[in-house]
Amino acid sequence: MTPSPSSPLTPSPSPSPSPSTTVPAHELRARFARALSDLYGEEVPAYTTLVEVSQQVNADVIAERGSDAERLGDLARVTAERHGAIRVGTPEELAQVARVFGAVGMYPTGFYDLREAEPNPVPVVSTAFRPLDGDELARNPFRVFTSLLVPEDRRFFDAGLEDRLRTFLAGRRLFPDELLELADRAEEGGGLAPADADRFIALATASFALSDEPVDRTWYAELEEVSSVAADIGGVTSTHINHLTPRVLDIDALYARMGERGIEMIDRIQGPPRWDGPDVLLRQTSFRALSEPRRFREADGSVGSGTLRVRFGEVEARGIALTRAGRDLYDRALGSGEWESLMPRTERELLARGLAFFRFTAVPEKVAAPVSDDLLTLVDEGLLVAEPIVYEDFLPRSAAGIFSSNLTGQGSVDASRDAAVRDAAWMAEVIGRTVHDPYDLYAAQSEASLERAAQALGLPEGVRTSGV
C-alpha cells in the first residue's frame, strides 16, 4: 500500500524473517511501549513530569524498604511498566486494534462495562490487551485499556444520533492497510524482520498520535452533550493515546509530590484505601485533563482555534491478584466502609482463606521426612515459598472514577430507556478472538507452579489445598 500523503514515512523492504534476524514479539512490544511513551511525552509534557516523579518515588521506596519493596515486581520491571488507554468507535475498529496488539503478544483480557458506572455512566465497554503468560509479563508488562463506544444504547443515544454517528465512524480509517498486513505477518510468524519491525513500530505509533485535522465544532459539541468520552471517540477522525500510565511503588507519596510540583491532581486515589495490610488489586489516580490547543471547523466552513480537555496523566500502584472469593470480599469491604475489619491483614491469611493467588516454589533442601502434603503446613515449615501474583488487570469502578474525574461535563443518560446487551461473549464474537478471563489466567499460573513444586518435593499425589 502507498502511504498517505500526510505520512512522512516511506515503505521498507519486506524480506521473509529467519530465526537469526527475527525481532520477536516481546521486543516489538517493548519498542512499541517506548515509542508511545516518547510520543505522549512530546504531546503532553506533564506526563514526562509524572514519569520523573514516579521514578524518584520508586528509588526512595527501594532505599527505604529494600528488597521487600520489590515483592510484587523488581525495580527494572516497575520502571519499564506502562499501561495505555485508547478509544475506538466500531467493532471493526476494535478488531483492527486486536490485530495490531496481537503482533506484539497482547491479547484481549477481561470485559469491563462502564455504562453502569456511578455517578457518571460512560457509554463504552472495554477490554485490556496484554500479555497472558507470566514470563511474557515479566519481560514487558505493557497493557492497553481499550474502550468501544456503544451507539446502540438508547440510554445515551437516540436512533437519529446513532445513525449519524455510525455514518461518521464509517467514513474514517484509523489504521493503514500496510500496518495491518505487517501485524498479521508478525503474529503468524512470532515477529518481524528488522526492517519490517522498524516500519511496524513507526506506523503503529503514528496511528495513535494526536491528529491536527480540524474538529467539527458543532458535531463535537452535540456528542459532548451525551458524554465527553463519546465526543472524544466519535467527534474526531482518528484515535489517540488517551493516557499512558507509569507504575509507582507508593502512590500516596506520588500524589503529594505532584501537587508540590504545581500539577493539579484529581480529587482522590481510586481503589482500595491505604492501610498497613497487604496491597491488593489496583490503586490509581491522575492529574487532571489539560486544555490542549486544537483546530476547529466552524459552521460556516472556516477553521479557527480552540482547546479540548480529554487527555490526562494516570499513575497506578499494583497489588496482589484476588480470587473470585477475594474479589467478593473486596467489594463488600469497600462498599460497607468496613475495610479494616473485613480484609485480612497478612498474606498468610489471604492464602489460608483462598482469597488471593500465589506462585509456589519448592525448597527441597529443607525436606526431612516425613513431608506433609498440606499446603499451609509446607509453607509454614519453609518447604514451599508462596509469592503473591501481581494483579495485571483493571477495576471498572476505578476506571470509571478516573474517566468521570476528567470529564468536561456531566453528560446525559436516560436510565428508563433500553440498554444494549454487551458482554465478553459478544465482544469475542465481533473481534474474532477469545476474551480471556483474568481469574482463569491467574489460577493457571498458580496451579502450574504448585504442580512443579509438588514434584520437586516428591509428592506424587500433589498438595492438598482443600479449605484453602
Automatic annotation (TrEMBL):
<dbReference type="InterPro" id="IPR009770">
    <property type="entry name" value="HGLS"/>
</dbReference>
<protein>
    <recommendedName>
        <fullName>2-oxoadipate dioxygenase/decarboxylase</fullName>
        <ecNumber>1.13.11.93</ecNumber>
    </recommendedName>
</protein>
<feature type="compositionally biased region" description="Pro residues">
    <location>
        <begin position="1"/>
        <end position="18"/>
    </location>
</feature>
<keyword id="KW-0560">Oxidoreductase</keyword>
<dbReference type="InterPro" id="IPR047869">
    <property type="entry name" value="YdcJ_bac-like"/>
</dbReference>
<keyword id="KW-0223">Dioxygenase</keyword>
<comment type="similarity">
    <text>Belongs to the 2-oxoadipate dioxygenase/decarboxylase family.</text>
</comment>
<dbReference type="Pfam" id="PF07063">
    <property type="entry name" value="HGLS"/>
</dbReference>
<feature type="region of interest" description="Disordered">
    <location>
        <begin position="1"/>
        <end position="23"/>
    </location>
</feature>
<keyword id="KW-0408">Iron</keyword>
